[in-house]
Every structure is written in structure tokens, then in C-alpha cells.
Amino acid sequence: MKRIITAFLFVAMVAAGVSASEYGALLDSNSSFEKVAENDFAFSQKLDASAYVRVPFTKDGRVALSTEFAYRFQYADEDMSHFLNLPLLKVGYSGGVGNGYMDIAAGRFTMSDNTRKIFNQTSDGLFGSFATDVFVASMYFGYTGLVNRYFVSMVETGIDAYTGFESDFYTSSLPYMVVGANVGLNNLFLNQNVGLSSWGFVGIQELDSNKVYGAITFNGAIVGNLFHSTEGIVVGLIRNDTAEVAGLCSTTLSYYFDWLGLAVNAGATYASEKFETVTATSGMVRSEPWTNVFLPSLSVSMLPVSNLYVAVETNFPLAAKDMEYHGAGLVGSVQYQLFNDVALGVNVSQFFAKMEENNYTKISLRAAISF
């Protein structure tokens, strides 16, 4: 394994040194211990190695080719796996136009809607945006079926088994044609910001799943150090000749103290029984999807020193349909920036379930170094 990583980084760095003005690499190790109910702790290990290169095509650097190569070693359930990925390969233009700033990109890169709940992942496509001090507008056309399924997490609820290209190193993802648009209005009134998103996903090949989303975000200052953030999402789901409508709404109040970067956040999220996203996102301990849940939460974070971040969060998931209590989640996180290029982290998650057989514990240790 060490030989694979060393060779991978060596080739990438040599390639970067030949013609690129920007390059770098990252090693990221994550060791986890998970336990369900009275079972023994299960150990898993994930090691990611990646290297990126940015090659400018013009003297001012506005037009450039960017690419990233990734390798993953994974150990879980007494089984070792190796995966390869190309998470970034794009040609892009960035530069000022009149009183604004324009971005144009083609290729493979990460895209998301304004809420980062509907779609937030790597895909292949075309992107364009224009921004000024008061607004930003963007448009995206893409396709998800060529990215490596091992490196993205997509919701497969209600979708019949789909099998695309599959190998030990690379398996194709669910094939959606994607059309999305985001609009943001800054300081629209009283220091309030408004965002609008409209995204559509059409399943192709053998994937009988179509989704259309509309979303609005609203955030800004209330008074002094008190801020709010509210968002609402409506989705139309069309599959197997049936159509359904579902929704999600969430709101958060945040207060920032003038002492050690202390912040307190209180919020709640409601997702209806049929609601689902495209990229699997979650705010719960066991990463359950945003479906049929009402989730009140409270979190506290602080910076005791400039390079140490500490956070604690608790939440109480209930079923949205009948408000049945499921349990209580508790998450503690410590992140320490040892040097500019070395980061260490510990994350402890505990779910105290209403039914003891669903109790869950996870401890994760992370170390990352960049070059």
C-alpha cells in the first residue's frame, strides 16, 4: 500500500513541476470504531491520498486547466479495498467583466444548490456564473453517471436496482441528467440575504426516477450578534408512473459572543414523510436521510486558542408523521491545527435510542497533512 501511495504522489508531483504554476497533495487518514447496542466495537480505516495540478493557459491566469487525482485505501469488515478517482478535471475562466465577476467551467467538479441539501457532489458538466456586490446568478448542466460511486453518496430510496459499469476500483454512479440554477441577493433589505434555487434531475438509461426541486433561503442579522438562517425546499418526485410532492423546512438562530469565538446555535428541521434529496445529506448521528423526521438541535462551539476548535451538539429526532420519539444524539468534536499543513481531529458520536437495540456509538480519529 505504501508503494502505491508513494508512486502516485511522485508521478503527480513530477507532472506538476514540469508545467504548472500551482500544485499540491494531501494525505488524509481516518480511523473509526463503531458499536451498535451490545455488539463489540468494529474497526475501520480509510486513507485518502490526492494530488492536484492547475495549469494556466494565459499569462494572467484567467484561463486554466485544473485536475485532481485521488486514491483510497479502505479496511472494513476484515476486508481491504483500493479505489481510484478523478474528482476534478475542468477547464475554466475566471475574471472581471464590467462591474462584476464571471466564472465559466467545463468538465468534472463539485456543484451544489444554495441549501447544500439537495445536490452537493462531483459531476460532469457546464457551469457559468456572474456576480456583483449585490447579487450572484449561476446555471449548471451536468450528468452524474460517470463519477465513481465509491466517492459520492446518492439517495437510492425507491429506486430499482441499477447496475452500470462496475469494477474493483471504479463503479459508475446513478445516471441523472441535471439542470440547476441558483440566484443570490445580498443585503436585499436590513442586512438580509435571499437565495433561490431550482434544480431538475432526470433519470436515464434504466433509472426510472425524476426529481424537480424549488428552494428558498433567507438569512442575516436580527440584532447585534444574533443571526438567523431559514430555508424551505419543495420537491416533486416522479417514478414508476406515480407523482408525489414533499417538502423540508429548517430554521436556526445563532448568537456569537465576543469571547473565545463562542457561538451558540439552536434550530429545528422538518422533512415530510416522502421527502428525499439527490445527494445523501443528514444532520443526524447515524446519517439517516432527511425523510420523515423532525429534528430539534442545540450546538455550542468555541476557539479556546487560535488553532483549536471545539464543538458539542445534541439533537432529538422524532418521526415527522406522528412525532414519535426516536432517541437523543450527542456529538463532540475537537479539531487541532498542529502546523499550517498538519491537522488532527477527534469526533465522538453517541445515539441514545428509545429502543436499546438501536443504541449507537462511533469514535473517529483523523490526521491530515498537506504538501
Describe this structure as you would to a colleague.
The protein has one helix at 2-19; strands spanning 22-36, 42-56, 63-76, 79-97, 100-112, 120-131, 135-143, 176-189, 192-203, 210-223, 226-239, 242-256, 263-271, 293-305, 308-315, 327-339, 342-353, 360-370. It has 371 residues and is mainly beta. It has an 18-stranded antiparallel beta barrel. The chain is globular, with a radius of gyration of 22 Å. Residues 4-19 have low confidence and may be disordered.
Question: How would you summarize what this structure contains?
Answer:
With 371 residues, the protein is mainly beta. Helix content is 5%, strand content 63%. It contains one helix and 18 strands.
Q: How does the helix and strand content classify structurally?
A: mainly beta
The percent of residues in helical segments reads: under 10%
List segments where confidence is low: pLDDT < 50 over at least 5 consecutive residues: 4-19
- DSSP E strands, number: 18
End-to-end Cα distance, whole Å, is 20 Å
Order of helices and strands: HEEEEEEEEEEEEEEEEEE
Please give the count of helices.
1
Instruction: Name the overall outline.
Output: globular
**β-strand amount:** over 45%
Note the main sheet.
Answer: 18 strands, antiparallel, barrel
What do the pLDDT scores average to? 88
Radius of gyration: 22 Å
